[in-house]
Design goal:
The complex is a heterodimer of chains A (624) and B (145).
Chain A (H helix, E strand, L loop, with lengths): L6 E6 L4 E6 L2 H7 L2 H12 L13 E5 L12 E6 L6 E6 L3 H7 L5 E4 L6 E6 L2 E6 L8 H12 L5 E4 L2 H4 L7 E2 L5 E2 L4 H7 L2 E7 L9 H17 L1 H9 L3 H8 L21 H7 L1 E5 L9 E5 L9 E2 L4 H8 L7 H14 L3 H16 L5 H4 L9 H13 L3 H5 L2 H9 L9 E2 L2 E2 L9 H9 L12 H4 L3 E2 L2 E2 L8 H15 L8 H4 L2 H12 L5 H21 L11 H5 L14 H15 L9 H6 L20
Parallel strand pairs in A: 1-6, 7-12
Antiparallel strand pairs in A: 1-2, 3-4, 3-6, 4-5, 7-8, 9-12, 10-11, 13-14, 14-15, 16-17, 18-19
Helix pairs in contact in A: 1-2, 2-23, 7-22, 11-12, 11-13, 12-15, 13-15, 18-20, 18-25, 20-23, 20-25
Chain B lengths: L1 E5 L9 H11 L10 E5 L4 E5 L8 H4 L6 E3 L6 E3 L9 H5 L5 E3 L5 E3 L10 H4 L6 E7 L2 E4 L2
Antiparallel strand pairs in B: 1-8, 2-3, 4-5, 6-7, 8-9
The chains are: A alpha+beta (624), B alpha+beta (145).
Chain lengths: 624, 145
Amino acid sequence: MSVYMGKLLYVDLTSETITDIPLDPQLADYYVGGKGFGAKILYDLLPANCEPLSPQNILMFLPGPLTGTLAPAMRGCVVTKSPLTGTFADSYFGGHFAQEIRFSGYDGFIITGAAPEPSYLWIDDGKVEICSAAEIWGLDTFSTVEKIRVKLGDVSVKTACIGPAGEKMVSFALINCEYNRHAGRAGTGAVMGSKNLKALVLRGSKAVTVADPANFGEAVDQAYLEVDEDETAAGFNTYGTPASIDFANAEQLLPTKNYYNGSFEGAAGLNAEAQSEHFWLRNVACAGCPIACGKVGMIKKGRRKGLITDVVEYETAAMIGSNLGISDVREVAYLVKKCDALGLDGMSAGGVAGFAIEAYQKGIITKDDTGGQELKFGDSASVEYLLDNITSREGLGNLLARGVKFASEEMGKGTDAYAVHIKGLESPAWGPRSVPGMALALATADRGGCHQRAFPILYEVGGEWNGEAVDRDTLKGKGEIVAHLQNYLAALDTLVKCDFAAYSIKDSTYCQMLEAATGNQWNVDKLMQLGERVWNQVKLFNLREGFSRTDDTLPRRFTEEPLPAGPQEGKKITLNDLDQLLDEYYQVRGWGNSGEPSPEKLKELGLDNMPTLVQVPAQYIETD
Amino acid sequence: MYYLRGEFDLCTGCGACQLACSNRATGGYSPRLARLKVFTEKENLVNRPLVCTQCENPFCMNSCFFDAISQVKETGLVFVDKEKCTGCGNCVAACPDEMIKLDSNKKADKCDMCEGLPEPLCVKYCIPRALKLILKKETGEVVAK
C-alpha cells in the first residue's frame, strides 16, 4: 500500500475529453509531488515558448503525498507558465482544496485546451463533468462559491475559482481556494480565465492510506510536538503574519510608498495589535494545521463596520498598506477583500497601484488617463479606482492589467526607474536594499520576485549559519545560504509544506513522515538532493524559455537609489554587488556563467538521462 | 456519563479531528468517512463542529427494530452491535444530525468515543480545544479531556 492515489486527471477543455493518467512510479520516486511533479510535467508537456494565455498552456493543481493525511499543515500548488513572467510558475494555496483532490482519488489535475463556452469542472467522487458556467460567469469569487453550493445543495463541496479579473485575463489574477486562501501569485487565474474555466468543484470520499500506519502515526505525533514546542509557531498562532510589520518596519525592510523607503510612519496602524483591536474574533486554520495563523473577524466600527474579513496578511498589509501609504487597517482590509472578490493578487495589485500613483505624481499619468480621478498615496479611493479600472481593463487599466513591467515598457518616460518587479513579478514586501542575501534570493527566485523560495533575512538579521553569526552587509557566503535554502524549500514544496510549519518541524521529521507514508527510505541528504533536483529541473525549463543571467537582476529602485533616512540609511545593492553575489551562487550551484547546470551537476542529480515521464495521452494526439 | 462537545468559538476548522477519526474508523484519511462533521458558515467566520453527543434519549437506538443499538449505563455510550444490525437504515433516518450512517458493509456506524483509548482521537488532535470530553456528574459537568 502506498500513500499515492495512483493517477493524475488529464482534461482537454478544447475537445471536452477526460482521461486518467496512471502515476509513473519514477515520477513519484524522483519528483515526489507538488512542485516536483509540476516542474517535470511542465517541462515534459509544454512546447518551448508557448504563449501563456493560449489553449496550449497547461494548468495543474498538485497536492503532495502527505496532503490529506494527518501530517500537519500540508497544502497544494498550481503550476503553469506565467503570463506575468513567462517563467515556470508555482503558486501555493492553503484551505481544503488540495486535500479534496486526494479524496477525489487523484494525485493531481492537468488541464489544457480552452472550453468554447464558460465552464466549470465538477468532480464528484471521481466522476468528472465539464459543466456550463453561464450562471456564475461574471460573479465575484465569494458569490461564485456561494452560488455553486446552493446549486449543488451541498455546503461541503470544495471550490477553486476565478473572479472577474481572471475572466478578463488580468496578468496577476489569482485562483481563489475558498475562503481567503489563494493560489495568488504569477497570474494563475489569468491562465484559468484563458481556458474559459470559471471553477473546479470537488466532492470526494476516497481515503488516503499510508504504507506504515504505526510509524506514520508516531512521526505525525512528533511533528505535532515540534509545532507545539516552537515559539515561532506560537507567535503565528497568537499574532499571525502581521507580527512581521513591526519587525520589517524596525529593520527598514517594509515597502513604503512604492518602495521609496523601508519604514512607514503609520506601521502601528497595520500591525497585529491594530488588527486584533479592530476585527479579530477567532483563529482559523487550513486543513490539518495546528498553527492556525488565520484570524477571522468582523470590523467593529467605522465606515467598514460589519465587513467580515480574515487576517490582513503581512504581505498584503504591506503592499496595500504601507506601500500605498495607507495606515488604517480597516481600509486595507476592505481593499484586500476587494482584491480577493475581484480575483486579483493583492501583492501584485499593491505593486501596480504603487507604480501608478508614483507615475501620476511625476506627471506621467494624468487625469486624462484616469477619467478625472486623482491618484495619491494614503488614499483608499485612489486604490479602489485602480482595482476596478484594472479589472474592467478600460483605458489605463488595460495597461496596468499587464503588470508593472509591461506598463512601464509601454509608458516609457523613465518609468522603469520605479517599476519594482523581478522578471515581471511585482516584488514581495521585503525591500532588499539592506539585506544582500535577500536581494540574491529575489534575483534568483524561479518565478521572479518571490520571498518564499529562500528567506535569508532570518539569518542576516541577527541569525547564525553553521554556528557562526552572519554579518548583514557582507556579500560573501550569501550565495551558499540562498542555494541551501532554495534546495530545502523546493524539497518541502514537493510534499507540499506550509512555510510556517516548516519553521517548527524538523527536516528529519519530514523524512520520517514521508518514509512511513510512501514506504521508501528517506533521510535528510536524500531530501536535500530532491530539492536540488527540482530546482535544477525548473531551471532547465526557464533556460529553455530563454532566461539567462541577465534576467537574474533587480529593479533600479534597489540598485540605484539608496535607502533614505532610517537605521539602514544609504544602503543599496549595486549591480556590482549583485554580480559578486551571483558569481558565488552560480559556483555553489555548479552552474555555468549563464546559469546553465553543468553536465556533472545534471548527472549527479539524475537529470542527465531523465526520460519523459508524462505524455499527452495517445487519444489526444491528432493524427490527421 | 460522558459525551463530546464541540464549540464553534474555538474551532479553527482544521479538520484534524475528522482525519484522525476516519483513519481509526476505516484505516484511511477521509473527512467524509469520519463520525463527526465540521461546517463552514458566514464566509468562514464560523466553523461549527457537529458531534454525536450520546443522547440521553437516543433516537437512533429507539428507532432500531432489531435491538442492535444500546446504551452503556455507566458511560452513556450509545453503541451499535454490528452482528445484530440488518442495515435497514431506520437509525440513519432518525438522527437529525446525521451522526449515524451505514458503513461500507451496510452496517450502522457511529461515534464510539474511541472506547478504550485514553482520550477520543478527535479530542487528542484538537489543538484549539474546541472538542472536549465532558463528564456528567450529579453535581454538574466537568471537562474530562
